[in-house]
Specification:
flat
């Protein structure tokens, strides 16, 4: 039995029953194996879960040719959208991405690819690192809040709208006026709004950075690698 088989089985089970309910015995039984075999590959559940997190990031596939000729904002946006879409397919596994910094092969490749993208478009090293981190935190944080375990559903938003509408408009004029926008904007539209604001801010920071002003001539942008994120 190979390590990848245990990792894939663990992810399937997390999608079905969640992280808290997952046990190493469940993983072994699902493969017709024993826990003794599993312990030959993993020191415990935490090590297995770290590999599951990296396995999820490995599903984020953006072909390099799709990014090569794009402005950096569009390339970063495509990568962020790909990560978001992948995370939404594994809502019960989302806490794994918040619990640790991914340093597996997929996490490292994603980090290398996006930072390379920023450096190739005139970002100083420090700003490139912070840009990568800011985008990753935004995407993962939004996915956890809106799609993770315990995230509000359509009924929750409907009840929230009713609550806002019930407030005294003289005491809460702004909230009551904005009640519809606060509760009825589609999640993906809300996600894009925040992402676009973040990219605009990063472009402003890039233009204001000393390195951008001093570079002559500006280096040719390097093609971004396939994004397997954070």
């Amino acid at each position: 039995m190979e390590v990848g088989q245990f990792v894939d089985a663990a992810l399937r089970l997390i999608d079905e029953v969640g992280i808290q309910a997952l046990t190493l015995r469940m993983v072994a039984d699902s493969l017709g194996s024993g826990t003794a075999t599993l312990y030959r590959h993993f020191s415990g559940k935490d090590e297995l879960l770290a590999l599951v997190a990296d396995r999820i990031l490995g599903e984020v596939r953006v072909p390099p040719e799709d990014l090569a000729d794009l402005p950096w904002q569009e390339a970063a946006s495509v990568s962020a959208e790909a990560l978001y879409g992948t995370l939404c397919r594994h809502p019960d596994a989302l806490p794994l991405l918040a619990a640790r910094v991914p340093v597996g092969p997929n996490g490292l490749r994603a980090r290398e690819g996006l930072i390379t993208l920023f450096l190739g478009h005139g970002f100083p090293v420090g700003l490139a690192a912070r840009a990568f981190t800011a985008i990753g935190h935004y995407v993962i944080g939004f996915a956890i809040q809106q799609h993770g375990p315990g995230a509000p559903g359509a009924d929750d938003r409907s009840h929230l709208r009713e609550y806002y509408d019930s407030l005294d408009p003289e005491e809460y004029p702004a909230t009551t006026a904005a009640a519809a926008e606060l509760t009825s904007v589609p999640l993906h539209e809300e996600f894009r709004f925040g992402l676009d604001l973040l990219l605009v801010g990063l472009e402003r920071a890039r233009l204001d950075s000393p390195q951008e002003q001093e570079q002559e001539p500006k280096p040719e942008p390097k093609p971004a690698k396939a994004s397997e994120w954070h």
